[in-house]
Structure formats: structure tokens, C-alpha cells
Amino acid sequence: MKNKDVNYEYELLSQLAEDGDLFAMRKVLNLAFKNSMQDLNHSEKMKAFKYLKILAENKDNEALLILGWFYYGGEPEFVESDYKKAEYYYNEAINTKPIDFNDNKNTADALNSLGYCYYYGRNNKPDYKKAFQCYGKAACLNHSNAMYKIGDMYKEGLYVKKSIKAAFYWYKKSYRYCSQNDHYITASISQRLGRAYLYGEGTKINLFAALKYLQIAEKGFYYLAIKKPRFSNSIFVNKSTIKTVQKLLREVREKLNNLI
Prior knowledge:
The chain is mainly alpha-helical.
């Protein structure tokens, strides 16, 4: 797609859609048809049409309606005008109850939590494909925790091709959507962003940005360790976590002092 701002989202959704997820197919089509079909290359157009057909077969009334439009007027590269088929798809759209793809916080929370089960293999061995599918759908519902876990999977190349640029994109977006009252999520994302800016992982080196985010991370982890006893020495926050952040902070400060 031409719009670089949605590149990584489109990449994530395309992977989920290729795995057969109807939710992701709907989201891909929303992006594909947001402006114009002319903004898509041939491969993306063919993929969009394939998803339309699959969704229509699964009684997605919006997909049925769009196919009716395509057959009514004809769509280059896809179909020639066919009024009989257009009439068929219009009737199917009218008589089919819409599939509910509305954003839902409870659904996003459930998907994110299920993602953790698969990611860490709580009941069996880790299943990164299923984890990616759960985190991916939750991320598309703007769940900040799922977004940074998707970032982790891109950074480590778990199920998907390793990409530190994609990882950084999802870390940044996760920070925008996270609640500042959720100290663990905020601190975890800030630690990742601080490291990225310190070492230039997926972005340009920016020592001042690194200092900013690492200080936020340190403050958040300290808050949890002192104010929230259940987090102390837990799988979430322990002395090692804080020491890692402090080590990164020392490195940032040393580099900044060398610039003076």
C-alpha cells in the first residue's frame, strides 16, 4: 500500500488473514477500500478480492454487498459486469445478518490473555502461531499490551520474519495507547523504547529520547516494587528487571556526558 503509516498494520493483518482469520480479512478490506483501489498494487488487489469471496461465503453481508457492486459495474482485474450475479449478491446481502466485527474491550482483553497462554505455553509447549493470532487481533482492537507483545515477536522473529523496524513501530503505537495508570505496561513499553533509542534498534539513535523512556521505566518498576508488594520478586518485576533498566540508564548518561 502507498500509505507508509499503515504498512506494519497491513503486514500484521495480512499475516493473520493468510492464516484464515475472518476478522483480519475484514480489517484488511477496510484498509484496502479506505481510499481507492487505485492505491493498491496488483497483488494487494487480488488478495482483497480473494478475501471478499471468502467473507461472502461466510455470509459477511458487507462483503456480499461489495461483490454486488463489483459485478454490477465490473471491476478491472477482477470481474466483468454481470447483472445476474450482482442481483444474487445484493439479495444475499439483504437477507444476511451482519457479522459483528465491532471493537470490544472485553474481547481484546480475552484475546490478549489467551495470547499469553500460547506464548508462554502455560498448558503445553509454546505455540507462537496461535499467540501471534491472538495478540494480532487484540492489537488491531488497540490493546496496548498485545501491541508490545507483537513488537516482541517481530523483534525475536517468533512465527514472523524478524524485523526490528516493525517491532519499534508496535512499541511506539503501544505507548500511545497505554494507560499511564497501568504502571507495569507503561514501564515495560518504556524500557523497550529506551533501549531502541539507545542502540538505534528500528529507529535512529536518540540519547535524549532513550533517557526519557528509561527514566519512565525505572520510575514505573520502582513504584510496583514498593507500592505493589505482589509485583515484588514476581515474574513481572524483580531486582533483575530494575538492574537492567539502571544499567541502560548508566550507559545513556555516560554517552551524553561524552557529548559535553
